[in-house]
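Researcher: Let's try something more involved. This one mixes different molecule types, so please make sure each is placed in the same coordinate frame as the others.
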Amino acid sequence: QGHLVESGGGVVQPERSLRLSCAASGFTFTKYGMHWVRQAPGKGLEWVAVIASQGRTTYYADSVKGRFTISRDNSQNTLYLQMNSLRGEDTAVYYCAKEGSTSVWSFDYWGQGTLVTVSS
Amino acid sequence: EIVLTQSPATLSLSPGERATLSCRASQSVSSYLAWYQQKPGQAPRLLIYDASNRATGIPARFSGSGSGTDFTLTISSLEPDDFAVYYCQHRKNWPPDATFGQGTRLEIK
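Model: All components are placed in one shared frame. Result:
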């Protein structure tokens, strides 16, 4: 049974940086693409970024392109999201999510989320 | 860019009733459509993948149907635990981004 645990959230001032981590266990981390999805308070789900299983391919939502960087350390079964130049609209719960084992077009495991608040 | 539109925004039903939730895509997504359930303070949970396949551990009262642009999530007989927000989602090969619908809130009548 897969398990994902995010960490690194907190309160940060606008234009500052923050790095989120997602520790994975219970599945073969190196086989799956991994994603970050966020949810602003009281709002719906917004996809943020994806990284392929070996880390060679990444892709970002337009809203974070050029400011956020997704990466992974397969030796440590850990996913990261480096967030720079943070804005108020980046305030959200950030979830890491795993591509499905049966269908890569869905997300079968999600972490519990970590809250990022951007405020002066 | 594919847009997913869910309806209704809110659905008020009683336990035991049948719930029908809709998700419409702005262009064909074939069968690459998933459904999630989210309760307050919790992460989303995968219910249905590839339009009609139940995820592991999901009760049989949940079913998905549709292809192309029109999809439906049906809960045959609502249990108290089913009242939550439901999202549809699509992903494709390239670009490898994902799109979510805006959600349907299923509330107790």
